[in-house]
Design goal:
The chain is of the alpha/beta class and about 230 residues long. Among the domains are: about 55-100 and about 160-185 and about 220-230, no CATH class; about 105-155, no CATH class. It has six helices and seven strands. The strands form two sheets. It has a five-stranded mixed β-sheet with strand order 3-2-1-6-7, covered by helices on one side. A hairpin with a 5-residue loop joins strand 1 and strand 2 (about 70-75). Helix 2 packs across helix 5 (about 170-200). The radius of gyration is 28 Å and the shape is flat. The model is unreliable at about 30-40 (pLDDT under 50).
């Protein structure tokens, strides 16, 4: 009796099914992100330090994190736990020391005149694009005006800039920790001012009050490109 040949199986439909299953798993599978570093980035400051502007040496706090995760502030080793207080001392310069930042003065009279002038332009402007630009200028001028009022007269703003840099061997954890300490220094200064002048924490202030306090204590942190060690 002759042998029967086994019938061929059409694999075309199986390839289609496998492809659909692959798409299904790609869409429904969640990636495990437990090893990532969670960090909430701060909002962009309205006024950023100008990297091209020549700055007096006393106005710069140079913070370097080397390949061994050591922190150097103006060339001197500093512990992470002490960095926040050193940053606050640099920003405030309460004793007006010669080795700490100078101050620039914002005149209360000039800020009042600027607000009144821009308000007059807003009332008379008909062009929508120009009106939008004027309103933006007005908000900034009003923030300076309120800052002067909160400060109690002419406003003195630190010219200090924190210049942060790391090397390519710096650990990511230390890099973030240094950033957090400096950000905490600004927050604590702003919070203490809000409590003293307004009787409430910084984060409970109105948007207008927050903008004004940021004019008094602007966050001026400049990050340089990491140093390439060639390793």
């Amino acid at each position: 009796m002759p042998k029967r040949e086994a019938p061929e199986i059409n694999a075309g439909s199986m390839a289609d099914i496998a492809f659909l299953l692959l798409i299904f798993f790609l869409v429904t599978t969640t990636m495990d992100s437990s090893y990532g570093v969670e960090r909430l980035l701060p909002p962009i400051e309205e006024e950023q330090p100008d990297d091209n502007q020549k700055v007096n040496e006393r106005n710069i706090l140079s913070v370097l994190v080397n390949g061994s995760d050591q922190i150097l502030a103006n060339g001197k080793l500093v512990e992470l736990a002490d960095l926040k207080e050193q940053t606050k001392e640099f920003i405030l310069n309460e004793d007006n020391r010669d080795d700490l930042p100078e101050f620039k003065t914002i005149s209360k009279k000039d800020s009042d005149d600027s607000v009144n002038s821009i308000r007059g332009l807003v009332k008379s402007e008909k062009d929508e694009d120009k009106l939008k630009s004027l309103k933006k200028r007005l908000r900034k001028a009003e923030a300076k005006q309120l800052a002067c009022e909160l400060f109690g007269g002419d406003l003195k703003v630190s010219k200090g800039i924190i210049s942060m840099q790391n090397v390519d061997q710096t650990s990511y954890g230390t890099y973030l920790a240094v950033q957090d300490e400096m950000a905490s220094a600004y927050y604590e200064i702003r919070n203490a001012f809000a409590m003293e002048k307004l009787g409430k924490p910084f984060l409970r202030c109105t948007p207008e009050e927050i903008k004004a306090i940021k004019k008094i204590y602007p966050k001026a942190i400049s990050e340089a490109e990491p140093i390439n060690t060639g390793n």
